[in-house]
Design goal:
about 0% strand, rod-shaped
Length: about 110
C-alpha cells in the first residue's frame, strides 16, 4: 500500500510537469500538462499535505486526547489538582492535553474560564 507521502511525491512531480519515476519532463501532449488536470493535481497535492499534517498532529497528542471522560478519571484529576499537582503534571499522568485538564477543572467548578 502506498503511503500518503509517497502519493504526495508523485502528485507533486506531475504538477511540476515531471515524470515521477524517471524525473524526465512530461511530453507536451501529456494529459498532466492540461491546465484543468494540473489544477486538479494541485488540489490533490494540497489535500494530501493537509492529511499528512493532520496525521502528524494526531500522532503528537496524548493517547487519551478526545476520549470521553468517566467520573473516576474526573475525580482523579480533581484530587490531583487539589493536592497541588500542576496541570502539566496531571495532563501527562492522565494522557490528556493541558487544555482538556483545564476544561475539566472548569466543568468541576474549581477553575474559572480565563
Amino acid at each position: 500500500m502506498m503511503t500518503d507521502q509517497e502519493a504526495l511525491d508523485i502528485v507533486q512531480a506531475l504538477v511540476e510537469g515531471v515524470d515521477p519515476f524517471t524525473n524526465e519532463p512530461l511530453a507536451v501532449e501529456s494529459v498532466c500538462v492540461n491546465p484543468a488536470v494540473n489544477t486538479a493535481l494541485n488540489e490533490a497535492s494540497q489535500a494530501l499535505e493537509s492529511k499528512i499534517k493532520a496525521a502528524a498532529r494526531r500522532a503528537s497528542l496524548p493517547s487519551k486526547a478526545g476520549a470521553p471522560w468517566d467520573e473516576t478519571e474526573a475525580q482523579l484529576v480533581l484530587q490531583a489538582y487539589e493536592a497541588g499537582d500542576s496541570i502539566k503534571e496531571i495532563a501527562a499522568r492522565q494522557q490528556r492535553t493541558q487544555g482538556a485538564i483545564r476544561s475539566r477543572l472548569v466543568k468541576l467548578g474549581v477553575l474559572e474560564l480565563a
